Amino acid sequence: MNQAIGVVLCLAYIIGLMVGQINGGGYVLLGLGVFAAIIFPILIRKTPKPRRQRTQDHNNPLPPSPFLFLPYSFFNKWLWISAGIIGFLASIYFQYRIPVPDDNDISKLLDQQNYQNTLITVYGEIESTPRLTRAGKIQFILEAKHVNEINGINGPAHVNKPVTGKIYVTAPLLQGTGLYPGATVGITGKLYAPQKRKNPGGFDFKEFLENEGIFAGFSVRKIAGNETGESPPLSFFSIRRRIVKPIIEGLGIPEGALVSAIALGKQAIDLPYNIKDTFVLAGLAHAIAASGTQVSLILGVVLALTKRLSKTIKFTLGITSLIILLGLTGLEPSIVRAAFMGVLTLIAIILERQIKPLGALLLAATVLLLINPLWIQDLGFQLSFLATLGLVVTAPPLMKILDFLPTPIASLIAIPIAASIWTLPRLAAVFNCLLPYCIITNILASVLITIISIGGFITAIASLLVPSLGKAISSLLYYPTYGLIELADYFAKLPGNRVNVGTVSLLQEIALYSLFIMVWGIGTFREKQREFAKTQKQKVKPPEKRFRLVPIALIIAIGIIVLPAWKYQTSTFKATILASTKEPILVLNKRGKITLINSGTEDDVRYTVFPWLAQEGVNEIKNAIATHTRLGLSTGWSNLIGQLPIQNFYDIPSSQQAYYNSNQTFLKTLKVRQGVYNPLQENQTISLDNLTMNVINSDAPLVQFQIDNKKWLLVGDLPINDQNSLALNGDLKDIQVILWSGIPLSQEFISVIQPEIAIASGNAIDPETERRLRVAKTLIYLTSQDGAIEWTPEDGFRPTLESDENLISWP
Known about the structure:
By secondary structure, this protein is α/β, with parallel strands linked by helices. The chain is built from 28 helices and 24 strands. It is globular and about 95 Å long. About 35% of the residues are buried.
């Protein structure tokens, strides 16, 4: 098959999978294919016939033109009709492969009334490697077989009820110790429905599990089946444990865990979360994931050892080593991609043919997506291919520019730059932020990562054969590993290490990649011009001139990101009540000036506040207000100021020494980051950006503030007697909105306030309070069910989740 035909058809399939996520996208591709089939033949016919003929005549060549440097077969109408049909069929195939629960799936039990409160025992087989969560629990995937109901809801309890499907399981640490993939266990606890994204920019846990074919979660109380403490049978899991144990013994934590992760990928060991977070912030997350590095090392060793053996043995040993590597690292999309390209490399070596990297990459993507089209949604799969694409198309010209340097040094600079350029738009679209130091960090870390990768690979082999030898060899990697951790930690803590850019739309992402492709295409065309000039013995322009477009392209790329974000920031005025664990968190965004009231816990900051700020493109908090500081600052404040500067911080100084001491670390950090501390007094009124606030009671707390002529009241854990007293003596009239945790509110308190809107940030609302608010014709929102509540002057209050999912609301 002509290479151009193969490229077009492969791209048609991949693009078809992409648009398969959009209703009607396949029909659009089919129409574009027909349109191209009509227009391209017209364009080629309008090209002068002598030029058309001579471009195919190698004995009488013409200089390449921007249009006809493509093969003649590229303009065949049947090619584009076929491409449109393939894209259309790919979109249908994608929809067909989307996981859906069958009639006997265990998640169907959740459709029964109150089944989430039923204690059940599920028997099944552990499918994934048990992992440690941030909360200190064990998490794994269980393939369910049958269910025993401990206490029946309606009638007798079910016994050995057959079920199918997978469930996401979390268990206490002690209960989950000793589990391994393939083990058959019985887990007792409660089934639950995974939650959708509640906050803008937050993680959609429900969607994530559904993409993996999981439609229910399970909270474990007890696990039966692992009491004997038997070692797992011989498997890739047990081999991984045998490899990792000597490395941990030789290096300790976290160095040993990091070497294991770099050598075998993140499936090999539970890397401490502080190390994961540090590497992510430093832009080194790829170092702790299985990728092409492991494949390159494996194939390099195999080919070196089998240099004098037959082609059949060489190919067999190469394939076997790749299969073993896939088993040890886990079938992650990034390592599968690298392994497939490794197979293509082996085939090319055996056939003594030169492989075309770009064609091999496209073929690998097409074949893998034929096997599992849902990988098109996997971020690891996307980044793996984009990074490799950068190495193929951008690293070579960069190496030519850096040819004044020794080749090893030039490659250490060119490779991180090339990979980062092509992954940045995707990362910005997913995480709404950029890491300015990531290229510098990768350049500086590349030598250390190479040393650790090679040393870790040698150590893994030694640990598998002779554990004591592996332990001894691993100790030699201490200083490189320690240096890598320190380097990552240094850049992760630098000011400005993360720049929030706001929401990057699909259109912006397409524009960025189109710009990259245009620059690459022009560079390729000019390279062909240089090659033609050499054959004709003409004067050759220096290759550096190809990069005159780069500064222009860079300015355009920055504009594509910055201008929409600037326009949004300068025109936005809204208040958002975020869905938090308990403490109400309110964020006011007035034309990019942020006022944050309360931070919540560390988890609230990590999973709620940070994602919201990133989506809004916020890189600084102008005003931060803590409303309950006489009991000490919320733990989230320290986590927050570690990432974002706060200009002005307001709170009521703690009168208790214990709380005073616990607040000092945060206040010192605030001073170091040049923030201003502003102590408040009760009944003191402060005026900020379109926000006027008065602390009525600091212990409860009870805080009144006004936004755009609308009065709000934040109610803390205020006892009923104090509520009645304030109702009689306090100035609480004309309150339109109340924020509280869902605790009981007295009849007198509600009668005096008579709010239009009541927003509860807890998991439930006191039933009697709910009844009283309904009688008062109050519109009720519960953030645990309705998600974040957003207010704008134009649209009023709107919940994040769909209106038909709002279990508590006033019609």
